[in-house]
Amino acid sequence: LPQRCLFSSDAPYGEPYLYRELIDFVSPSKEIASMVLGENIRKLLNNELRLVNGFMWLMRHMSIRKKLSGE
């Protein structure tokens, strides 16, 4: 389950520092705390960026093929 958790402070109603400290306190290991506090979102955004880049490459490739074929 730690692979599916993301840190959020509920700002402006929450206190980010206290919630961050709480994650450190309740996490069974530094690795899990690190995942929740940033590694998970970094991986998620990196995968999203790869997906967007792949889509943009595909669109450019299709456009070039269309121009070359005279469509």
Walk me through what this model shows.
With about 70 residues, the chain is an all-alpha fold. It contains 2 helices and no strands. The protein has helices spanning about 15-25, 30-70. The longest helix has about 40 residues, at about 30-70. The radius of gyration is 20 Å and the shape is elongated. About 5% of the residues are buried. The model has no long low-confidence stretch (mean pLDDT about 85).
Short characterization:
This protein has 71 residues and is an all-alpha fold. It has helices at residues 16-26, 30-69. It is elongated and about 65 Å long.
The biggest sheet amounts to: none
- Please report the distance between the alpha carbons of the first and last residues: 50 Å
> Given the helix and strand composition, which structural class is it?
mainly alpha
Tell me the series of helices and strands, N- to C-terminal: HH
> What is the 3D shape?
elongated
As a percent range, the share of strand residues is under 5%
Uncertain segments are none
User: What Rg, in angstroms, do the CA atoms define?
Assistant: 20 Å
Record field, number of beta strands: 0
**Arithmetic mean pLDDT:** 84
Query: What is the count of helical runs?
Result: 2
Query: How helix-rich are the residues, as a percent range?
Result: over 70%
Q: What's the helix and strand layout?
A:
Layout: H1 16-26, H2 30-69
Which terms summarize this structure?
2 helices; 71 residues; mainly alpha
